[in-house]
Amino acid sequence: MKSEKKIGESSSSSSSSSIRQTSPPIPTTSKKQKRRRSSVQQGTQLRKKKFLSDSPEFSLNQDISSKLSISDVRSLILWTMSDFTDQPKWCTVENRKSVSQVIVIFVPGLTSEEFGLSTFSDIKKPLPTSSVCNELSFISQRFQQVIPLLLPGSNKAVYSSFLALTQVTLSKKEKKKLLKDSKQHKVILPDLYLTLDDFISNNYPVHSEVPGVTEEILAKTADYKDTIKFDHEGSHTFALDCEMCIGTTGKVLTRVSLTDFNNNVIIDEFVKPDCEIVDYVTRYSGITEEKLNGITTTLSDIQDLLLKTVSSDDVLIGHSLESDLNVLKLRHPKVIDTALCYDHVRGPPLKASLKSLMELHLKTIIQNKETGHESIEDCISCMELVKLKLQNGLLFGKVLEQESIFKRISNVNKMRLIDGVKKPKSSLCIDYAAVKGSRDEVRVQCFSDDSIVENFKLHQKEHDLILLRLRELEVYKGFGILSKQSTIPDPQSIHEAYSNLNRRLSDIYESASNNSLIIICSGNGDCRKVGELQKIHKLYQSEFNKDGNKSGVEEWTLDKIEELNKAVNAARDSLCLITLKKDDSIDEEAIEE
């Protein structure tokens, strides 16, 4: 018990601005007045003097010979906002340190059609924006050229343009430093808890005490039982593992094991399913017909036993624990999943097996018995992996190939002092997704484009890199589907959708700080056909892998492969617009000696 507390549960459009000779003389000011107006006393944010008269300039190079990618856009952001030393070859940014902030606006649904073309697929060089439809006049007024982009993907799939933009490949030296820094940062159990997004994306039942949970989410598992809060002696950190067989109704519970932080066995019970078992899958479950002879313990009995043993304040640890909790029909708020704490050697979204993690990180062979898995052994293995994580830092066991662009930017200080103090640059994401922010960026979830614009106006002055996503046009065109929580109005026509987008883009531009670099990226295109064909392929593979019998499923032919390639290429066809909001005025006080 002492070691448990010690290791895991400690608390815890214009011309560029310049000073012209025709400008009126700057009034002289006494030293006393200057001190009174100092940035330290008034909290004024002042740019460093040596950059005050250096207005930034952005231009595209005329010799672009290949289609740009989302990584080229990322390089521009890093060149502008960080100490990145690789200057983009496709554009020029003069006086980059005078750029006040970078604003990236994702507008899925914005395609070549809005510029009078059926596709950008064969176009490499930028085109004039004058061909844009009349309802999107803001674009032709503020942006000179539209840049064709090729989004990340393969011949079979389209990858997320948002993730591609926000992830930076690490060098070996950077990886080593990250691991060293991570190990020096103390980790406690709450650092490993699943977030609401983790619960949802990994098909976990969600407990009512999980922060941010909605009634709609809870209703999906309304027949499940919740752990409740109560005081009890002993450990407050448990590892759980269940063994399952195949019954006439699907997967059924046949054994439950629970161990504590010190690997003592608390519960180990066989369970009699309420339906006939058709496959004991002994090779994996370790369950045989003989082991269940005479067993009368039911699922309800096990639920009651666990609810009397584990408080909602306690921690449950397991490997892909969603399977166990779903078969138990239990919901718990504080969950640590070793399949998420540790990465597969090839990185996400692949998940490593418990057996491979134990062999790789603890040099221990498990699950090697001919009689099948041993649930107590699996419990202890999960607990030991969590202890190892606590000792070695959050990044231990993670595939460090990339880091977020937000992290990279936060390593650089702002060009302005805040209350006379240097502060690191900060990032803001305003989106529909319920994604937890890190120490490097702030995330705001919204449910309409208008709300995104309003939140931008409210928070933009505080941040250096801002990412937004406007989705009304995408939804109107049928490219994407939103959650029931969204409050996007239903435009009566495409012309109304264009007008709404035009107004919002104009509002963002007018609210942006002077000398802001503004980037509009259409992001992923229409992926509906891609999804349909991938579904056909997956079903075909699934049936073929079972017994080679393909009857009853649609054939996966060479024509289908070619159709998928065409659909992927169309969805990867994207565009980008870049402009610099110029500073037309000079703050007289900001340039005083």
UniProtKB/TrEMBL annotation:
A single GO molecular-function term is: nucleic acid binding
Q: Which domain of life is it from?
A: Eukaryota
Main location, first listed in the record: nucleus
User: Domain Exonuclease: where?
Assistant: 236-395
Record localization: Nucleus
Cite the CDD domains for this sequence: REX1_like
CC annotations in GO: nucleus
Family the UniProt entry places it in: Belongs to the REXO1/REXO3 family.
Name of the protein in question: Exonuclease domain-containing protein
